[in-house]
TrEMBL record:
Record organism: Cupriavidus malaysiensis
Protein name per the record: Pilus assembly protein
Keywords: Membrane, Transmembrane, Transmembrane helix
Ranges where the Type 4 fimbrial biogenesis protein PilX N-terminal domain occurs: 13-59
Keyword Transmembrane: yes
A Pfam family matched in the record: PilX_N
Domain of life: Bacteria
InterPro entries, sorted: PilX_N_dom
Parts of the chain that traverse the membrane: 15-35
Length: 183
């Protein structure tokens, strides 16, 4: 028959096994939690990357739109722009540039022009593309031959494969000949 001491030792060894198993379960749950957290962080970083890439594609579409003279026919400026982000020759995003919208058109005063700026010279009243030094005109109320127009240019990227949905707006000021109105 086992002695009391041997019986107590066997019971302590059994308790050590139970405590060890409990700690193993706790560590296993901790490891699973850390792995899950890492996977979530990778997904969040990927989503942020797709959003930044989509924004860049939309900005590229806006820049292509405003780099051309769109004021005469804004509807013709609407376009689709395919953007290859990673340089593999395949378009990763397609940005849709909407037709620019004119929000305001105001005459530019002769006094607001700079006589030393070649772009301003053609706006002086009665100068025929020559700088006469006339800064104001009483017949036109001091207005020059140019108007300042404000435009809203919009581009969107809606990519179903990455889930990136971005819409950008950019304001653009364009000088146009007097009499040009917002379409």
């Amino acid at each position: 028959m086992p002695s009391l001491r041997q019986h107590k030792q066997a019971r302590e060894q059994g308790m050590t096994l139970v405590v060890t198993l409990i700690f193993m379960v706790i560590f296993l749950l901790l490891v699973i939690s850390l792995i899950h957290s890492s996977v979530v962080n990778v997904k969040v970083a990927g989503n942020q990357q797709h959003t930044v890439e989509a924004r860049s594609a939309a900005q590229q579409a806006i820049e292509q739109t405003i780099s051309q003279d769109f004021t005469a026919n804004p509807a013709a400026a609407a376009s689709s722009v395919a953007v290859d982000v990673n340089g593999d020759g395949t378009a990763d995003y397609v940005a849709q540039a909407s037709a620019p919208v004119c929000t305001s058109s105001q005459p530019i005063k002769d006094t607001d022009l700079d006589t030393t700026n070649a772009d301003d010279v053609s706006c002086y009243l009665g100068n025929g593309n020559q700088n006469t030094g006339i800064l104001t005109s009483t017949a036109s109320g001091g207005n020059s031959l140019c108007n300042s127009t404000q435009w809203d240019v919009q581009a969107s990227v809606n990519d179903s494969t990455t889930g990136a949905n971005v819409t950008l707006h950019q304001g653009v000021a364009v000088r146009v000949p007097v009499g040009t109105t917002c379409p």
